[in-house]
Design a protein that fits this description.
Helix content is 28%, strand content 26%. With 136 residues, the chain is of the alpha+beta class. It folds into 2 domains: 19-48; 50-134, no CATH class.
């Protein structure tokens, strides 16, 4: 005699649906946890990177004595203070502040001001020296 096939055990209760309230709480917690990290990253970026990406012919607004105020602007704008007449790459803050650094812009006849654009705000910072004239 053959044995009849085993019947499957009756299924258990259906799984509980995920709570949308719990999901919402988790999502809000993640966002609130990430937001402070974003603010810290923004602070570090604005504190240690004074990069405008300015090229020869661009105009700058702001005060070169306050590097974090410098930004590229339209040369016809009322706030345009400087025009980039030369850019010398691969310089350090030490070179910028040295007597030799002051001569970096000598080949650019219209250059009246120098501005260091680079990574960091210590002597080892590397970047470029922008040779500037007054915006006209």
């Amino acid at each position: 005699m053959t044995k009849p096939p085993d019947r499957a055990a009756p299924p258990g209760p259906p799984p509980h649906p995920k709570s949308t309230k719990r999901t919402l709480v988790i999502m809000v917690s993640v966002v609130l946890g990430i937001a402070p990290l974003g603010l810290v990253a923004l602070f570090v970026y604005t504190r240690f990177f004074t990069l405008t990406g300015a090229q020869v012919g661009d105009c700058l607004a702001g005060d070169i004595d306050k590097p974090y105020s410098i930004e590229i602007t339209d040369c016809g704008a009322a706030d345009a203070n400087y025009r980039v007449v030369g850019r010398v790459e691969d310089k350090s803050m030490v070179e910028f502040e040295s007597k030799a650094g002051k001569k970096t812009c000598a080949p650019f006849k219209d250059a009246e001001f120098l501005y260091f654009e680079g990574f960091g705000d210590d002597a080892a910072a590397s970047g470029a020296i922008l040779c500037l004239s007054k915006a006209s």
